[in-house]
Amino acid sequence: MSPSAWSLHPTLEKDTISIGDLPLSRVLVIKDANYPWLLLVPRRPDAVEIIDLNEIEQAQLTTEINRVARALKEITKPDKLNIAALGNVVPQLHVHIIARRTTDAAWPRPVWGAVPPLAHDPQEVEAFIAALRRKIWLS
Fold first, then answer.
1. Which residues of the chain have pLDDT under 50?
2. Is the Cβ–Cβ distance between 94 and 16 less than 8 Å?
3. How far apart are CA 29 and CA 80, in angstroms?
4. How many Cα atoms are found within 13 Å in the side-chain-facing hemisphere of 124?
5. C-beta of residue 61 within 8 angstroms of C-beta of residue 82
6. How far apart are CA 135 and CA 139, in angstroms?
7. pLDDT at position 4, please?
8. pLDDT of residue 138
9. Closest CA to 107 of 96, 99, 118
10. Is pTM beyond 0.90 here?
11. What value does the mean pLDDT of the chain take?
12. What is the DSSP letter of 72?
């Protein structure tokens, strides 16, 4: 499978803002200011499950999850990080990394469908993306 044949699923394209590319994954921000919510999407065509990646790619994905999760934790100081690869709605392999607070709109339940998405303030999301890019070595 060639990385050049990869493309982002249309739903993820519509619902996210791109931060940039790590060696394996595209890093995205979900367009919902209710939560600091990131996605990692391995740039591998037809990958639906983590086991669809070879062992080296799985290790790289774990490294990238750890790097992004640590950066998100340092920037947002959450009460809890939620990290999951569900894919029940969008089949393309993607990993959610969500900074949760006991005061957020969905706590302690999952974030999906708890409240309508809240639009980001353009300046705030740009500052958030800039901070993330510095922390995960994309700038």
1. 1, 3
2. no
3. 18
4. 11
5. no
6. 9
7. 59
8. 84
9. 99
10. yes
11. 95
12. H
